[in-house]
Amino acid sequence: MSILVKDILKLSTLKNMELIAGDSGIEKCIEWIYVSECLEDPLEGIKWLQGGEIVIITGVGIRKDISVLTKLIEGISEKNGVGLIINIGKYIKEVPSQAIEIADRLGMPLLTLPWEVKLVEVSKEISNAVILARIEEKFMNDFLNNILFSQMDFAVDIKAKANYFGYNLQGKCYICIIKIDGIKKIQQSKNVYDEISISRTKLKLRKIVQDILEKYSLKVPIIDNDNEIIFLNRSEENSANRLEKALREVQEIIIKRIDGISVNIGIGNSYEDLSMMRQSFSEAKMVIESLKYEETNNEIRKYNDIGVYGLIFSIQNKDVLSNYYKQILGPIIEKPKKDKEISSIRILDTYLSENCNLSVAAEKLYLHRNTLTYRIKKIEESLKCDLHNFEDCLKIKMALYIGNVL
């Protein structure tokens, strides 16, 4: 897990730290800590920033020249630093309002620490947190990537190793996929085309998911893959109940923060053997695919709930599916003759989806009931079927599902 600016506020030695400005930037990721002290030129030190550092100063080089503090905040922002910690007391008595206003405008977290707090303890704790987070993240990333995408020796006691970092993988587990659509489209609408900006957005989204899961006491191995956030969870009943609430909150917060985005969630079956997590992952992917074919957004669904799609996806030979589709629906697979004419396929799909209720189907298709009756009759003649016959309806509905997939 990455360490964000907001995370260091939870560290024990930093309990007296206070965020006084730039709270819009508290989800920036801390790469390292940098103590910047230069008596001759306080701005000289930040020239060496590479991006991602949180900077600490005592103000020994600034003293009464508060204008230098505002320039320092601007300089850190230009160098892509993620925040400034000021040791309040001996050299800087209080942070001026001008500095607070600039930090807020730039989204640069500005934090204060009492003079009594030793900087060596601060730098040590933040550094340790960053290092431990990187070790933990690498291990769990490798673990989940290996069981899903490559070969892994399951004879090794992986569960014990994961437990060292606080991950409980005992009992049955399953894979959950959070599919986030619309990121690149939104970035492009803002004229942001670089992969770095997109990666930062994905990192924020992953951190949102991670924080909400931990809020519900769900510490899980988690990775991101393209526009998917993937994690492994235990299927123990209490854990599953908490997960459902957490996933609803994930959807609500992401949709609220980023307008125009959609969040579909697929959950695979649970298995006791970790080597079966690939199967669970495949099932979760099928759920996401089924939601796409149904053009459903912001849904949470389990593999057991996708019905016939699970059967269709298991057929590897697409020619078999294509032949069945053409055999059943061939005579009506055509484009509407007129621009505004509704296709027979759409009429048939809507009619069957509404359990052959003419009135409801007509309303959904914006057709007069008599017009729909006429079109249904013509479809029955073309397909040589009876839409009041269960067997005929079943064959046609299966073909329509296959059509969605094809």
Automatic annotation (TrEMBL):
Pfam families linked: GGDEF_2 (PF17853), HTH_30 (PF13556), PucR (PF07905)
Highest taxon above the source species: Bacteria
Purine catabolism PurC-like domain location: 7-129
InterPro entries in the cross-refs: CdaR-like_regulators, CdaR_GGDEF, PucR_C-HTH_dom, PucR_C-HTH_sf, PucR_dom
Location of the PucR C-terminal helix-turn-helix domain: 346-401
UniProt domain CdaR GGDEF-like: residue ranges: 157-288
Similarity comment text for this entry: Belongs to the CdaR family.
Name of the molecule in the record: Purine catabolism regulatory protein
Species this protein is from: Clostridium chromiireducens
Source lineage: Bacteria, Bacillati, Bacillota, Clostridia, Eubacteriales
